Amino acid sequence: MSKAGISEEARPWSEVVNVSTTYCYMSLKIASRAFRIATRHYSTRSNPLRVLGIETSCDDTSAAVVTSDRRILSEVRHGQRDMHEPMGGIVPTLASLGHSRNLPNVICQALDEAGLSVHELDGVAVTRGPGLPPCLPVGLNAGKTLAAVCKKPLIGVHHMEAHALTARLTESNAPAFPFMTLLISGGHTILLTANSLGDYEILVDTMDNAVGEAIDKTARLLSLPWEGSSPGPALERAAAQGDPIRFLQRLPTPLLNDKKSMFAFSFSGLKTAVARLVEKENVSTTQDINDVAAAFQARCIGHIEQKLKLALDREIKCNKKPLSSLIVSGGVASNRYFRDRLQSVTAAYGLPLVCPPPKLCTDNGAMIAWAGIERLQAGLVDDYTITALPKWSLESLKDAL
Ligand code: KG4
Ligand code: ZN
């Protein structure tokens, strides 16, 4: 065996494979560039574009048809609460099975409600990543096949870019670039500046858990039932009836006075502190549960507020960025208490706070379709060979511009 782990006899074949792989890669690059040039006319077309969006990155099976003049023609979702709630959380292989079962009907229903056949679409957008490894390929393969059969442009969408761009679909006064975005979901807690489409600069990221993960764990510890497709709404409701002061001192503020991690979020310590509190105290009455939920929620948003102020100071005061607004999106952004607290912070900076409607803060096909439209108009389409990217850095999108 050679150093590279290829036997000498196999070398000629490996060279053939290498040469043909390089050739294929080059052909794909050329084809994809030609495709991009061919799709540039979409930005100047007079009829609005109609794009199908498909989302299967986690546990919601969703599809929607959206137009470039910002109309949502249809928005269909199939949740999986009945599968995951009894398991105490999302089981990726079960979620994948649910997508395989439900996606065909969800897509058909989205097209029916939009009154369109697949041939009348101008493109197919689908979540390429990040997300659960067994779930992403279900949507991606469906999207690729539909696009290829109908010879339509395919747009592989970054799930977090879609959350960040949702407000440009839903707000009558669409926020202009550059804007700051706070993405708070079950998988991410990120504060970033969106300079332009595909150009994102992460200012604060989590060093451990996402805030939604901590919310889900706390809701489970407090035996709160799921509402809709997640435990978050029940925690919000309990917290609204609780006294945050009673247990506040038992839950530490994350990363307080930690100079090394100034530009970082952390939620795992808070999650553990709630577990310890529930174990030590007899948290049994509804009032006890509500009070723990209220203290936990207050600490979460207090931590987010503190980092948001640092990021706003850096971007507005130091870097003189002409930010148009702060957009808050992701499932946790549907929490009214979080929105009100964030509103007070942005008001102090004279910055409008923009939140998509709660329904479109959680995972949905409309946000994928809209991100697809923005990319299609910019000539940023993909070829039919793209694969799922369960881990995919948002900042790396800049390399493909
Ligand atoms: O964006 P999303 O639908 O899925 C991911 O990409 O993760 O976010 C789901 C997260 C879950 O952790 C869920 O419990 C949380 O959002 N969530 C909420 C609320 N609604 C959903 N958290 C707090 N308050 C809510 N009202
Ligand atoms: Zn999401």
UniProtKB/TrEMBL annotation:
Residues 72-370 form the Gcp-like domain. Its main location: mitochondrion. Its EC number is 2.3.1.234. Signal peptide: none annotated. One of its GO terms (cellular component) is mitochondrion. Binds 1 divalent metal cation per subunit. The keyword Metal-binding applies. GO terms for biological process: mitochondrial tRNA threonylcarbamoyladenosine modification; proteolysis. It is found in: Mitochondrion. Its cofactor is a divalent metal cation. It catalyses: L-threonylcarbamoyladenylate + adenosine(37) in tRNA = N(6)-L-threonylcarbamoyladenosine(37) in tRNA + AMP + H(+). Keywords: Acyltransferase, Metal-binding, Mitochondrion, Transferase, tRNA processing. InterPro entries: ATPase_NBD (IPR043129), Gcp-like_dom (IPR000905), KAE1/TsaD (IPR017861), TsaD (IPR022450). CDD domains: ASKHA_NBD_OSGEPL1_QRI7_euk. It is an enzyme of class 2 (transferase). Homodimer. Belongs to the KAE1 / TsaD family. This is N(6)-L-threonylcarbamoyladenine synthase. It comes from Lichtheimia corymbifera JMRC:FSU:9682.
